[in-house]
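Quick start: load a record and inspect it. Here is Alkaline shock response membrane anchor protein AmaP:
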Amino acid sequence: MRRSRTVLDRTALAAVGLLFLLGGTWLALTRAPWATRLPSWWPDPGARAVLVDPAGLAELRSTDWWTPSVMAASIAMTALLALWCVRLLRGGARPSMPLPAPGGTLRTRALEDVVTRHAAGIGGVSRCRTRVLARHKQVQVRLHVRLQPDVAPAAVLPALAELAGRTESSLTPYRVRTRVRFSTRSHRRSHVR
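Running the structure step on this input writes:
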């Protein structure tokens, strides 16, 4: 269900983007009088009305900072939108791992959720974030464990090792490698000036 919805969302976004691109290209290249086709409720632009006052625009263009600022902002926005689109296209459906049972598969996101839930239930753990990477017959489990204040990593490490062992035994045909990264938030101390 989730994968088909993701494909549908991306297809709709691509269609709307293509429609806007074609419409903008048509407006830019045909020089068609679009002001005569505005809805009746739209205010009348007048015969010689423009969006930006020509004198004000000429004054802006005469300053030294205008052209580099416009170019830098345009390049930055284009790069950010391109990165966002690449991240959307890449970060969609996660791979499924085939299990030894006939027709059995395991979604890596489901495995991440279960491991995160078990790790967050360990005493002394404030939060946990899990990432599972599956390639061929090797699975890499990355845990980022945020500890509660005044809890040493040695206090939760045996429970995390047990969790890693259970994960490894449940994914028997795969070689599982678990990496744990600890972080903690220190006590907030009041500062006196």
